[in-house]
Amino acid sequence: MPCSKCLEKPNYHSFVKFGRANNVNLFYTAPAKTEDYNRDGTKLANILLHIEEGTEQKPWIWVVDCGNMKMKHYTEVSFNSSLIKALGNNPQLQAIWIIRSNMWIRTTATLLKATMKSEVLRRIEYIDKTGIELFDSLRKKQLDDNTIQWLLSQ
User: Where are the beta strands (DSSP E) in 9-110?
Assistant: First the structure.
């Protein structure tokens, strides 16, 4: 069952299946596109619900697009560490690709790596390219041109 917020307003949490790479499903999240600013404390539970239902217990890669993030999109440390703990229990998560990263996301990841022991933190990969270089990097990861075009259009 989808989360109640996304039933009311589709893509409220910005968790979208958008393609495949090497028989692994790709999911896209853009913090700047979410409308959940974690004011009622349900954000983590809803994201975990999306992951559980959306990924269908099959191998998946999470592409996190940090483009256009502002202060209101940043999450607190307790949210981030709880998310990492939950993802560490997800054996199907193959990688987390971060595109259009920023100083906040890099600092947060560094802090989490220094304070937590989670295998999932080793699966984070930054793809800090733009334009044709980003297209080429994604093609090397075996994404087809339509999937790359969709991602770049976001």
Answer: 16-21, 24-29, 60-65, 93-99
For residues 143 and 12, what is the distance between their CA atoms, to the nearest angstrom?
26
Q: In the chain, what are the domains?
A: 4-149 (3.40.525.10)
Could you tell me where the DSSP H helices lie in 25-93?
A: 43-54, 77-88
- The pLDDT score that the predictor gives to residue 2 is 67
Residues 6 or more apart from 2 whose CB is under 8 A from it? 49, 50, 53
Per-residue DSSP letter, 98: E
CB 18 within 8 A of CB 26: yes
How many other CB atoms are there within 10 angstroms of residue 30's CB atom? 21
Query: Is residue 74 within 8 Å of 111, Cβ to Cβ?
Result: no
Backbone phi, psi, residue 84, to 5°: -60, -40
Confirm if 111 and 84 have CB atoms less than 8 A apart: no
1 close to 53: Cβ distance less than 8 angstroms: yes
pLDDT along the chain (154 residues), means of 10: 74 85 94 77 83 91 94 84 92 96 90 92 92 92 94 92
